[in-house]
Specification:
- By secondary structure, the protein is an alpha+beta fold.
- The chain has helices spanning about 20-25, 30, 55-75, 80-90, 105-110, 115-130, 135-140, 150-155, 160-175, 180-190, 205-220, 225-245, 255-260, 265-270, 275-280, 285-295, 300-310, 325-340, 380-385, 385-390; strands spanning about 5-10, 15, 190, 195-200, 315-320, 350-360, 370, 375-380, 395-405.
- The chain contains 20 helices and nine strands.
- The chain has a four-stranded mixed beta sheet. Strands 5-9-6 form a three-stranded antiparallel beta sheet, with helices on both faces. Strands 1-2 form a two-stranded antiparallel ribbon.
- A hairpin with a 5-residue loop joins strand 7 (about 370) and strand 8 (about 375-380).
């Protein structure tokens, strides 16, 4: 069988699968499930074109990794064929641990477990299945490989993941402010003293990249309507978990039932191999199938939330820089209690409050380094003459309060 296929991608054109191992990983059920997990969760309720999936994104990131490594090779950086393949595998599988609706349910279905941790467990599992052929990719992923720039290409402030998702999310949402010059950025990448750097003449492209990312957060990822929809979805799952604990046997897929009936820790996944298998069967279809079933459930809180979300009757939301006052929260709680006739403790399922943050450029010890013509290495915040770059180095937090539209507050 010819496994060196070509895939037609709407963003980049033809994407080549360079090795049989990569083809076999793409064909694996763990990876194929990414076809059924939307990249942007519930953002299509705001931007109808946002129908792309984690599958699209992973293939695009693999393609960009190949282009980047070819660029580095062209600048005299020695990269073996084994390293080349391992880097493409690591970025291909970097999101394989995402659950249904991507980030939306991370805090609910698997509280306290990051998708990166699950991606690593999936990669270890696949490494066993494929006879240890993913060992170098695993070293790249956990940053234990001596050549550190490989890990930076996978996870940093200027990684391949971000390059693809900004380009792809901008394309599918139609938000042109998120457009970035990928060709220019890749052409300006280099390696200096084993670390990833950007040549000085690429500084304007990096400034544009950082600004585009900040704008995409406010216009897409943290759009107030998307936040409202996500909070409704979270409350639906929380209510379902509550009913399961109360002895109800809700109609769901067996895989979803596993994670509604009990909370698990990361160590549980390491100790119980069936948990990873169950999670590897979950996708968006499990959630929407359950919600369509629950819309007729006798529990009025659960059925009411499901019906509202299905017809896009979303919570009213107030998103602002100032903290939400306790008096505002209590006013909404009282309104829910009075309008819907629910117990005060159950009123929490019918409104939500909290905060979201936009981390435009937070280095976490891994800055975007600019290599000057004089051979100096400077953080982009130092190298740039734009005050906006220094400004977006600060985390911006906004607070939200959302509630049913038929309640006056």
């Amino acid at each position: 069988m010819n496994k060196k296929k070509i895939i037609n991608d709407p963003v980049y054109g033809f994407i080549s699968i360079r090795s049989e191992l990569i083809f076999d990983l793409i064909q694996h059920p763990f990876f194929q499930r990414l076809r059924y997990i939307k990249q942007l969760g519930l953002s299509d309720l705001v931007y109808p074109g946002a129908q792309h999936t984690r599958f699209h994104h992973a293939l695009g990131a693999m393609h960009l990794m190949g282009r980047t490594l070819e660029t580095l090779r062209g600048k005299g950086i020695e990269i073996s064929n084994e390293e080349f393949e391992a880097a493409q595998i690591a970025i291909l599988l970097h999101d394989i641990g995402h659950g249904p609706l991507s980030h939306t349910l991370e805090e609910t279905l698997l509280a306290g477990i990051s998708h990166e941790s699950l991606s690593y467990l999936f990669m270890k599992n696949l490494n066993k299945q494929f006879g240890g052929k993913l060992e170098i990719a695993l070293q790249f992923f956990r940053n234990s490989y001596p050549r550190k720039f490989f890990n930076q290409l996978i996870s940093s402030q200027l990684d391949i993941d971000r390059l693809d998702y900004l380009k792809r999310d901008s394309f599918y949402t139609g938000v042109l402010e998120g457009t970035i010059g990928i060709d220019r950025i890749i052409a300006m990448l280099n390696v200096h003293k084993n670390l990833l750097v950007v040549e000085e003449k690429g500084i304007f492209s990096i400034e544009s990249f950082l600004n585009a990312r900040r704008l995409m957060y406010w216009q897409v990822y943290l759009h107030k309507t998307a936040v409202s929809a996500e909070r409704m979805m979270v409350n639906i799952i929380r209510r379902a978990q509550y009913l399961f604990l109360a002895g109800e046997n809700l109609n769901t897929s067996e895989a979803l039932k596993v994670f509604l009936k009990q909370n698990y820790s990361l160590s549980d996944f390491s100790e119980q191999s069936n948990l990873l298998e169950s999670f590897g069967q979950l996708d968006d279809n499990d959630i929407w199938g359950a919600i369509k079933s629950w819309r007729d459930h006798p529990d009025e809180i659960l059925s009411g939330l499901c019906n509202r979300l299905l017809i896009r009757e979303l919570f009213q939301i107030d998103l602002k820089a100032e903290p939400i006052k306790k008096t505002e929260i209590e006013r909404v709680r009282a309104g829910v209690h009075q309008t819907f006739g629910v117990l005060r403790k159950d009123a929490n399922y019918l409104f939500s409050y909290g905060s979201v943050s936009n981390e435009g450029y937070v280095t976490n010890g891994q800055p975007i380094n600019i290599l000057t013509k004089a051979g100096r290495v400077l953080d982009i915040a130092q190298a740039s003459d734009l005050p906006s770059i220094k400004a977006i180095s600060k985390i911006v937090e906004k607070n939200y309060l959302c509630w049913p539209k038929n309640i006056s507050v």
